[in-house]
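Its record is retained below.
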Amino acid sequence: MADLNQLKQKYQPVIDTIQSFSAEGASVGNVALDGDKLLLQASVPSPVVANRVWDAIKKVDPSYSDLHHEITTTGTTQSYTIQSGDSLSKISKHFYGDANKYLAIAKANNLDDPDKIRVGQKLVIPEAA
């Protein structure tokens, strides 16, 4: 019989990833045993965030044979409003896990200079290529 606490500990980085997007509307629902697997039910706001969660799952266990996931996506696009202290690199790191993908955000928002963003400006976050 699978041990719930061991499976939760194993997949804690996935749960943490989902929770890191709570400001964007992500939430973890049920975390329980489903036979010999961890049942993880969650909701994320966009395919961009869903891809980030998938990256976390594959990093924990590429086969994820002991995980039963039900992760729903509530929207089709991802936006982000720039906060004080943000940079495109910081935003890129948050959404893609890679600060160097900031040019994709700049291009999707027709920004001529990625260093010239302003607090309150709303950005579209494209799916990573």
The longest strand covers residues 27-34. Residues 47-60 form the longest helix (14 residues).
